[in-house]
């Protein structure tokens, strides 16, 4: 038996998106080109009917602080609440976990040499919640359970793109040995190019973003040749969030992927925003 | 080990400081204070007594001065990380475009236009940007 990986969903998670949803600004001229990317995601999810989402994301100082910063942290909780993050976003709905699957993934990861932090209590921030708000607007309760996997993108040294890809590949192996045919969607949250800090704030690199969007599906190795510092130079300090996409691509496995939908728009807040769905070809 | 070329980028990207151990050590108190602002009661306490609140978190003189002057680049130089500083900015009603303007020396309108222009250059539906400054 093995879990069924139905595909991968990749999305930016800019906090301002949450503000736009709260205000009902989806059709405003500034926001429409971004939100127009999501009806195809919703249609695909409605057909693909995932039971569980494995979510690679980065925490922005809700659950983790610099007193103890894990490089890779895997949730193994029955539920994952959101809370006040300090910048005026609504508090998002609590997610249900799948502890048995979480522990199975943790066993495979540690067995593969990824000595992850295991979290039985874990708050999840907007970086996890906003892709779901975009994919499942107006639901009373989230229709999927989650296994959250947080990657440190805050405090250097950050894990390399290659290491994050390999982490994803280990998650893929865990899914292949899962006890039933649970339908799994893999999610990569964040990016694309942007920089919030320093006198280079506002930096965006559309060429690099398109390179990532063009190669992630069937030539992901092309994204692995840079160090994380090099990605920061090329894509901005917060552009390193692409490692969440790279890890998620690893979790899809090595088979060819077909692009179901893609959207790319500059700017959303300070960010080049992107939406992508890949499914096994 | 991280290779030497990548290590050099930690301080080698123009207008950028990558937040590594040196900066994280220097900025711990400031970032700890900002982390506390996840709690509404703490945000209110800061607004009620900024000086006392900063003292409670043992900010260094450099950090306290940068906060008092609302000097974002100064806070970063003093070890602040933008993920946490954004929570402080929120108390002042500043979003990331406001922070961008403060750090680049542009007006907020100029900074927003800078972002919009990058979209136009990349072919992102420029005709839809007419109301872009609203966001």
UniProtKB/TrEMBL annotation, chain A:
Identify the residues that the record assigns to the Extradiol ring-cleavage dioxygenase class III enzyme subunit B domain, covering every copy.
8-271
Please list every transmembrane segment annotated in the UniProt record, as residue ranges: none
Q: Which GO terms describe its molecular function?
A: dioxygenase activity
A Pfam family recorded for this sequence: LigB
Domain of life, per UniProt, equals Bacteria
* InterPro entries for the chain: Xdiol_dOase_suB
Q: Which UniProt keywords apply?
A: Dioxygenase, Oxidoreductase
Q: Which NCBIfam families match?
A: PRK13364.1 (NF009901), PRK13365.1 (NF009902)
Q: What is this protein called?
A: Class III extradiol dioxygenase family protein
Look up and give the organism this protein is from.
Novosphingobium pokkalii
Automatic annotation (TrEMBL), chain B:
Query: What EC number(s) would the UniProt record show?
Result: 1.13.11.8
Answer yes or no on keyword Oxidoreductase: yes
What InterPro entries is this protein classified in? Answer: LigA_sf (IPR036622), Xdiol_dOase_LigA (IPR011986)
Q: Extract one GO molecular function annotation from the record.
A: protocatechuate 4,5-dioxygenase activity
Superkingdom in the source lineage: Bacteria
Q: Look up and give the organism this protein is from.
A: Novosphingobium pokkalii
Extradiol ring-cleavage dioxygenase LigAB LigA subunit domain residues: 30-115
**SUPFAM superfamilies, sorted:** LigA subunit of an aromatic-ring-opening dioxygenase LigAB
What keywords is this UniProt entry annotated with?
Oxidoreductase
User: What Pfam families does the record point to?
Assistant: LigA
Record protein name field: Protocatechuate 4,5-dioxygenase subunit alpha
